[in-house]
Sequence to fold (322 residues):
Amino acid sequence: MNGWVCCTASPSLALLKYWGKLEGGDNLPATPSLAVTLGGLSTRTWVRAGGADSVTIDGEPQEPDRYSRFFNCVRAALGVAAGFEARSTNSFPTAAGLASSSSGFAALAGACALAAGKEMPAAETSALARAGSVSAARSVFGGFVLLPAGARSAVPVHDRAYWPELRVVVAITQQGRKPVSSRDGMARTAATSPFFPQWVAQSQSLLPEALAALKERDLEKLGDVARASFSMMHATALAARPSLLYWIPETVAVMDACRELREQGVGAWETIDAGPQVKILCHASDVDRVVRRVVERVPQVHTLTCFPGDGITITAGEEPPA
Fold:
């Protein structure tokens, strides 16, 4: 196919966290992750085949080494020899703990396939996206998505309409890139944290509980298991050498605001990825109260409200922004 192809994807918020890879170098997750695709946030990626591989994000050229393995996997999977030029934009901060790699590589995988003239089933696109970022395997699908431990592709669990009143308030506590990337942080944790084997085992044991809570649409149960998952993940990272601490004082203040809300009978269940940002699960009817309390406690925090979103969408012929 000639010309540009545009793919849009939304980030995947893990309710059960993925943190760590299986040994062997094939980018397979050591832990299962159950996630919701965040409607309201998006990555748009334009790709055309031909020439040397290159990627820009929000106009900033990216290091080729970060993408070389992914593009080689794309060429092997698609049976093509062409290079790919990619231009990407995010509607939210990049590399700041908001899962930009999940939406970024999902969009890149979908766009590369069509730019090369190939139509791929969603499961194959998911496996291709995983070659760039494990969590990107989930972003290919909308709604609620499971990536089992050791899996090559994600599995849709429920579509975006399954829980229409669910909201995720994103509290952005700090702009800019986090000091240690998720990729490097995971590798350090797996190599040096004495708690890593227990983290892997406990993550698997939480999965049935999380799936049951999702089946019942029980926010309190789902929020409780989500809090357990992120707490264990960060405890494991904190025990790495050198220690990994992604939180800042504002992170803890937002967590405390959620505790206060729950004590007052407002469902507000926080979860935190590798970064300082806090995502808060709540019902649509409670969004205003959650946002108000968070901003009262941490006035400099910027909030975004998300909902269960769509999987990737792909169009051809649209030119990237100049």
Observations:
- The chain is about 40% helix and 20% strand.
- The CA atoms of residues 180 and 252 lie 19 Å apart.
- The chain has a mean pLDDT of 94.
